User: Fold this.
Amino acid sequence: MLSNNFWKKINKTSTCWEWTGYIDRDGYGVFNGNFIHRLTYQEYYGEIQSGLEIDHLCRNRGCCNPEHLEAVTHKENILRGESFAAKEARQIVCPKGHEYTQEKKGRRCLVCQSIYKQEYYQTNKAKIKKNIMIRYYEKKLEEVVIG
Assistant:
């Protein structure tokens, strides 16, 4: 059970419960060495399951309103955020408006990739054909010498 000293440092607004005590450099409220959002979550919902962390649904790190807190995986917490990686992960179309396709090693735009390959081939046609011919004759020469 949280002490009266804890509850005295909360300013309940119409939405968030703002922490008025110590705020760390990242904007999280701290009480007796513990993050206040974790303390409040545990007070209302019980222990935080292993492998989960507390996400601020309101995006306010100084808030400890239990209705604004949810236990989620680290990946889910990151993807819900506003970082560059999170914004990129939410993109479903490439910059030219084509849908991304999900692959084993990530995602890519098959339309743009096809256009790029066609343009590359047209620009480098002579060089590509020359390399193909060189590999062909190297293989034939190897067959004659070895075989």
